[in-house]
C-alpha cells in the first residue's frame, strides 16, 4: 500500500478498539445504491521507479529548443538557490499560515515579499498573491468597482493591446457582476489616448509594456483617467520595473491598483503554471484588496512576529460579502520569487532587465537586416517586439521548430495582417550565437 | 528582535554569482519612461540569502516535520518522487505557447489525467484549468448559470448552501452574480430536508454540497436532496474538498451531482506550499459538459491537442493566462499512477480508519464528538464547549498548547455551528503511534486545563514567538518593512 | 454580566437606539461588543443616506468576525461617529456612550414594536447564549 504505514497488527488493534470486524463497516452510512466496489478503468499502481521512468520519457518528448517566445511567459535564468530552498519540506508541505506561531517562516517571508512588491511597483501594500496574471487583473477590476462605488457606472475600459488571454479571463469572470468592459482602440499598437471616451468610466486598465511589447504613454493615460475620477489599474511585468517608471509614479498621482504575473521572478515556465498573480494598491484601498495579507505585530513579551491580518475581508469570515472567494493562493511561488529578488537585489534585477532589453534589440536589429523582415510598429519597445516577415509565418514557424528554435508568437487574428507577424523576445539567457542561429535559419528559408 | 532580510541589507553588497553581462553601450528606452530610483530590494550575499530563508523555513510546522491534522485540508504525505517527476527540465522549460506538435509529452499526461478524474468522479468530461478549489467552485457556479441562461430560465438567481458550508461557497455565489441562500443542518449533521423544501423554488439555480459534509459526516439523504433540487429545476454542485473520504468507494456522479470540482492539493497529495498552489479540476455530466471552461485537452488521429472556444461555443470561457497550474496537474497524475485503483481505495479506507480510531480514543478519554452517533468519515468534529465552560480554556487555547506538544493544531472554529470546534483530519499516511501520541497530548492538555488553566491560556511557550496580538496587527497595520 | 440600560430600546440584531425627538442615535449593545471581542474596524454610512428599518447600514469587525449593523428605524443618516475610524476600541470601552455609530433622522417617530425593552432584550441575549 503506497504511503500507508499500517501493519496488519495495527489494523487489527484499531478495528478492535472500534469494535468492528472490518474497515468496510466504517462505510455503512453510505447508501448501497451509490457505493462502488472497484475502479475498473483505472490501472494497477506502479512503483516510484516505474513512474519516474514514464515521466522522464514524457518530459523528454517536449524538450523544445531555443526559446524566442514571450507573450506573458519568459525564459529567464533561475539561480540554483531559489528552488533548492523553496523545495524544502517546511515551505513545500506547510499549509496556509493560520496558526501564526507555528508558521513564522512563511508569514515573515510573505511580509518581506509584500515589501519587495510594494517597492517595485511604488505602491503602499501588496497581497500574498492570487492565481496568475490574468485572474489578478479580474480581481483588480472587481476591486476597482468596489473602491469607486460612488460612481454609479460600471464601465471599465480595457486596452485593445491587452494580453488576449487576460482579456478572455477578465470577460469570463467580471461580467457576472454587471461590469461592462469596453475596448479602447489602438493606433500603431498603442492605446489611442485622444480617441478614448472616458465619460463615466469607473476604471481604466493600462498594460505596460503592452501585449505587443510597446511602451504606452502611461503618464497621459493616468492623468486623463484621474481627471474624470476613474481609477487606474496598471498591468505590469515585474521584471520591467527594474528599469521602467513604476506605476505608483505614473502621471501626477500614480496608478491606484497594480497587478501582473510574477513568473519572471524565479518561476519556471512550466507550461504556464503554477505561477502567481500579484496585486498592489494604496493604503486607503487596502480593505478592498482581496487575498491574504501578512502583518507585523507583537507577542505578550513584546517580541515581533507575523500574522495574517485584515482577515475580515476574506471568505472564511465575510462569506457572501467577502472581497473575493479566493482561499488557496500561490504561496510556494511567492516563496521562490522572494528568494529570487533577494539573490538578485536592485543591481542584479537591473542588469537582467537591461540584458533582456539589449538582447531583444540586438535580435530585432539583426533580423531586420534581411530585406523581407521589418518592425511592424515604429515605437519604443521593451523586451518584446512585433516583427513582420512579409509573408505567412506558418511554414516559417514549422521549419524553425523542426530545427530546434521557437521563433516567436504568431499574431494571426490578433493584429492587422497578423498572419505575417510574430512577437519575438530574447531574454538574458539568449546568446549572440542563439541570435545568429535565428538569423541563419531565416536566411536558409 | 526578529531581523528581516532588509535589516541584513548593506548598500552595494551583492550575490555576485547572479551577475550577468553588463555595460550596454546604448539604452534604447526613452528617458521619461525610466525609473528614477532603484527599488528597495535587499542587498545581501548569496550565503546571507540562503541562511536567512533556511532559518525562516525552520520556523514552520509542515507535514514533513509534524503531524498536521488540519480538518478539511487533507494534510497527507506529499511524495518526493512525485515532486521530482514534475521538476524535470523537459516539463519546467516548456513554454506554454509551444505548438502542440512539440508538446505531446505534457499533453499526453494531461489527457490521461482528465480521463482518470472522469473515472474517479463518474463524470462525462473534466476540465483541468481551474487553479484552486475556489476557482473550481466559481467555474461550476458559472456553468450552472450559463445552463439556465441557455434555457431562457433567467429567474434562477439563487444558490443554496448549507449553514455549515465552507466560506468559499457563499463567496463564490456572490462572485458569480448569484445569491447564496442558506439551508439548515439538522442535529445529526445532515441537511434538514424541511428547511431545504422551504428554500427551494423557481429561483433556485442549484445547490452546493460537500459530501462528506463540512460537519464531517456522510450526507445520507443525498438521493432525497437530489430529487428535491432537480424536481425544482435546480442543479447539484459537488464541492470535492472531502473526496479523500470516499475515493474509489462512492462517486459524486453516481450521487446525481451535475458538476463538481476536485482539490488535487488535498486528495491527490500535491503540496500545499504554505498557502498554494492548488488545482481545482472541474467535472460535469453530459448536461453541463458543454459549458466547461477552456482550454481542454483532446486526442485525435494526429495526436493530442487543445480544445478552445472555437470548438466549444457554449464554454464559459477562459479562467487563466495559459492552462492553469500544469505543474500541480503533473504531480497529481504521477501520484495517481503510483496508487492505481487499489491504492485509491486504500486511501479512503485508511483515512477513515484513522479518523474513526482517533475519534474513539478521544471520546473514550471524555472528549465530546459533535455527532457521537455518527461514523467519522476521513475526519471528525469535537466540541470543546463543556471543557471551556468548566475551565475557561477555549478551543483556541487547546490549539496553541498542542503546538508545544509538537502537533499542528486541528482546524478550529469551523464549522461555525459547532461551538468551540476542533475539526480533526489525521489522513491515511499517519501511523497508529502518531494518533495515540496526539490523543495522549489532548488528554494531557485537558488535565492542564483543569489544574493550571493559565499554562494553557498563555500557550504556546516553546515556539519562536508567544501568542501574537492579532488586534494590534489590524489596529496598527504594518504590512511592509519600509 | 452585560449592561442593558433601561432608557434604550434594542433590536434583536443587537443594535441599541436612543430617541431624542425625531433623532435616533444608534450603537451596538454591551452584549454584542462582548461577543465580538476587540473591535478593530467600523465602516460607517455616508451622511445623507436614506435607510430602511432592518436594512444594512454599517459593518463592525473584530479580528475573527464581521457583523452587519442594521438600521433600527427608517429615515436619513444625519451624523456619524467618525472618531471610531481611528479609535474603534471605543465600541468596546463605552458601547452606550462614546461608542455610538450614527444618528438617523426618523421619518416616522413611532418606534416599531419589534424593538425590545431592556428587560426583553436581556432575556433574548440569555436565550442566545444558551
Tell me what you see in this structure.
The complex is a heterotrimer of chains A (445), B (482) and C (130). In chain A, the strands form 5 sheets. A 7-stranded mixed β-sheet of chain A has the order 2-10-9-8-7-3-4, with helices on both faces. Chain A has a 4-stranded antiparallel β-sheet with strand order 13-14-17-16. In chain A, strands 1-15 form a two-stranded parallel ribbon. With 445 residues, chain A is of the alpha/beta class. Chain A has 12 helices and 17 strands. Chain A has helices at 8-18, 48-61, 80-86, 89-92, 104-121, 133-147, 164-174, 218-227, 315-318, 331-367, 394-402, 432-444, and strands at residues 66-67, 125-126, 155-159, 180-184, 186-187, 190-191, 201-208, 231-236, 257-261, 277-281, 294-298, 304-308, 374-375, 384-388, 405-406, 409-410, 421-425. In chain A, helix 5 (104-121) packs parallel to helix 10 (331-367). Chain B has 3 domains: 1-59, no CATH class; 82-338, Type I PLP-dependent aspartate aminotransferase-like (Major domain) (Aspartate Aminotransferase, domain 2, 3-Layer(aba) Sandwich), CATH 3.40.640; 346-457, Aspartate Aminotransferase, domain 1, CATH 3.90.1150.10. Chain B has 482 residues and is α/β, with parallel strands linked by helices. Helices cover 36% and strands 11% of the residues of chain B. Helices cover 21% and strands 34% of the residues of chain C. Chain C is built from 4 helices and 9 strands; from the N terminus they run βββαβββββααβα. In chain C, the strands form 2 sheets. In chain C, strands 1-2-3-9-8-5 form a 6-stranded antiparallel β-sheet. In chain C, strand 6 (56-62) and strand 7 form a beta hairpin. Chains in contact: A-B, A-C, B-C. Chains A and B meet through helix 1, helix 2, helix 3, helix 4 and helix 5 of A and helix 1, helix 2, helix 3, helix 4 and helix 5 of B.
Core attributes:
heterotrimer, A: 445 residues, alpha/beta, Aspartate Aminotransferase, domain 1, Aspartate Aminotransferase, domain 2, 2 domains, seven-stranded mixed β-sheet, four-stranded antiparallel β-sheet, 12 helices, 15% strand, B: 482 residues, 3 domains, globular
